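STRUCTURE:
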């Protein structure tokens, strides 16, 4: 848009000259139009009642000398109204070489009012063309500015706390005004567009802090600084710079964008403050739960998440990811659990997120576990998930220990997920191919004859798991038949089924061959050494499983694992165990029942005794496990 100062150079045919002294500020006023009057119309109708802001008033004819006395009063009224309505200036047409085109009183009043007086020798028709051109410019500018403002509105986020909103607005400003943009606080840069803008604008920010310039004053060549707060002392500042000067329209657009950035900045601050308070409260609630202070934790969470901690039981999940991604993991976990769980960053580890999921009694709700499993899968190979079983809310610390152990166990699983390792089937954790080689090598003497193998594979598993009388009833065989087949199998295997380790080894081998057989490949037997049972149990996933299985029993002050070791060493017989330990049989029996509770295993079953034996051997090294080498079966 033209200004009073630029019109003489932009439109030289107007032959404009100034007739009084003008302040620099008046020369920068935009000219928005031309209002043409004549001396006669002024004398007849008087000064216009209102004048459009930014217009110049053109007296289309020279003021005749004979009318100067009468028109001076009208011009005084006109100048007052021009000052009131923000007119750009007063122009009078004159013939070339005319002297004193304005009455002296008018010149003196105009200088007091700060209104420029100008003289033109151009015809009125040319000024009409100037007016029409200015109006077309204004229309074009208004359309462009409307499009820019509409575009700016499109950059508004759906939520002011959107972390990317400020960057998008900065990118928009940089693109629309062809400027470098930076939004910064005293200690850090919040956003910059382009990325190199921070280096270019840093000096402007430093100069402002040293010189104390006003927020929207020029602090350097073609640089603007605008505080985003309500005062010039606000911490967050918008800084923009470009090679060409800013006009008033650019500055208005900058101020609009600054208002939006200020709202976004305020929303970010309030969101961070609320998040910090919420995070602190949640962390406090978790610490109280770990200390067993359930009532206090419920009071802390009452306003944040009403009813969340009302259930009496809980599951705990541990999500481990890269430290740089933990904050994002916390937000994702909060989003997918949808208020069903208490999510906090582990204060003890920078790479862990804790998810406390209250579970109502009798409800089997696995949605949280399923969502967390999908999330860990989406995070990729650097993430893992461990989960606990269902615990009383007052035993949250126990659930956390189980979930932490499960997470370590998950690191060795294909999907990096382990939900309650205590319930994991031991056989599924064994290396499948080596386990088949070991089992087939052990059972090879029984498998040489198909008829013999068919009889023994149906009889031996049941006979090893139950007393022979019970086994015979289950198999619908005579007890002597069962006894004879068991004796034959023991003879062929060179094993003593009266001892617990041999019974467990044979039972495991039979389960692997009859129920866990790999579909491919087929096997042949070589006279070389086979994988060993001890070797099968020597793996990190088996150790994690064993440690978790025995964890709560190890914490029991009654020395349950000492009893268990002696009991297994005496083939699960109470009397020699009690004698060895110097306690009563009732005490041994009581300890075994307590172990069943800790392990969630039936220790009267062969599978329950097998899990206890293997776990004790892996963790403590006792009781020992026989490891007889037999012929190796290998893939054909």
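SEQUENCE:
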């Amino acid at each position: 848009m033209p200004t009073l100062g630029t019109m003489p150079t932009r439109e030289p045919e107007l032959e404009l000259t100034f007739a009084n002294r003008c302040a620099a500020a008046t020369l920068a006023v935009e000219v928005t139009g031309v209002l043409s009057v004549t001396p006669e119309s002024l004398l007849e109708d008087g000064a216009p009642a209102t004048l459009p802001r930014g217009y110049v008033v053109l007296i289309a004819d020279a003021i005749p000398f004979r009318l100067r006395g009468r028109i001076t009063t009208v011009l005084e009224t006109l100048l007052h109204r021009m000052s009131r309505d923000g007119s750009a200036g007063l122009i009078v047409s004159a013939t070339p070489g005319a002297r004193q085109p304005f009455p002296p009183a008018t010149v003196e009043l105009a200088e007091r009012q700060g209104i420029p007086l100008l003289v033109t020798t151009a015809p009125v028709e040319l000024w009409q063309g100037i007016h029409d051109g200015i109006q077309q410019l204004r229309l074009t500018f208004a359309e462009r500015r409307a499009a820019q403002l509409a575009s700016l509105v499109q950059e508004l986020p759906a939520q002011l706390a959107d972390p990317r909103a400020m960057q998008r607005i900065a990118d928009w400003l940089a693109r629309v005004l062809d400027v470098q943009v930076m939004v910064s606080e005293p200690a850090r840069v919040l956003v910059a567009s382009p990325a190199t803008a921070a280096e270019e604008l840093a000096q402007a920010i430093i100069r402002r802090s040293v010189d104390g310039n006003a927020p929207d004053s020029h602090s350097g060549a073609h640089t603007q600084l605008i505080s985003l707060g309500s005062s010039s002392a606000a911490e967050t500042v918008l800084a923009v710079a470009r090679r060409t000067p800013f006009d008033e329209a650019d500055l208005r657009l900058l101020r609009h964008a600054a208002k939006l950035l200020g709202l976004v900045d305020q929303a970010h601050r309030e969101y961070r403050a609320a998040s910090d308070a919420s995070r602190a409260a949640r962390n406090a609630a978790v610490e109280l739960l770990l200390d067993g202070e359930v009532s206090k934790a419920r009071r802390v969470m009452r306003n944040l998440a009403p009813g969340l901690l009302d259930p009496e039981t809980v599951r705990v999940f541990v999500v481990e990811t890269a430290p740089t991604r933990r904050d994002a993991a916390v937000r994702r976990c909060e989003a997918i659990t949808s208020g069903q769980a208490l999510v906090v960053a582990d204060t003890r580890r920078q790479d862990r997120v804790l998810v406390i999921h209250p579970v109502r009694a009798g409800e089997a709700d696995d949605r949280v576990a399923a969502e967390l499993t999908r999330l860990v899968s989406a995070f990729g190979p650097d993430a893992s998930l461990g989960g606990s079983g269902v615990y009383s809310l007052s035993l949250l610390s126990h659930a956390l220990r189980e979930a932490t152990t499960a997470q370590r166990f998950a690191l060795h699983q294909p999907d990096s997920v382990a939900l309650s390792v205590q319930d994991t089937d031991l056989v599924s954790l064994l290396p499948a191919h080596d386990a088949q080689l070991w089992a087939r090598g052990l059972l090879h003497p029984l498998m040489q004859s198909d008829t013999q193998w068919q009889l023994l594979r149906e009889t031996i598993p049941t006979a090893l798991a139950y007393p022979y009388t019970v086994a015979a009833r289950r198999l619908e065989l005579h007890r002597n038949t069962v006894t004879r087949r068991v004796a034959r199998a023991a003879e062929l295997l060179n094993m003593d089924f009266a001892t617990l380790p041999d019974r467990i080894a044979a039972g495991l081998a039979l389960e692997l061959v009859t129920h866990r057989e790999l579909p491919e490949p087929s096997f042949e037997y070589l006279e070389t050494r086979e994988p060993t049972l001890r070797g099968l149990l020597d793996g990190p996933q088996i150790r994690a499983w064993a440690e978790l299985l025995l964890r709560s029993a190890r914490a029991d002050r009654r020395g349950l694992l000492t009893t268990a070791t002696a009991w297994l060493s005496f083939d699960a017989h109470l009397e020699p165990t009690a004698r060895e330990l110097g306690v009563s049989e009732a005490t041994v029996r009581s300890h075994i029942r307590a172990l069943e509770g800790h392990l969630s295993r039936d220790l009267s079953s062969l599978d329950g005794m097998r899990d206890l034996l293997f776990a004790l051997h892996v963790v403590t090294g006792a009781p020992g496990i026989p490891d007889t080498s037999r012929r190796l079966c290998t893939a054909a």
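REMARK: The longest helix spans residues 248-290.
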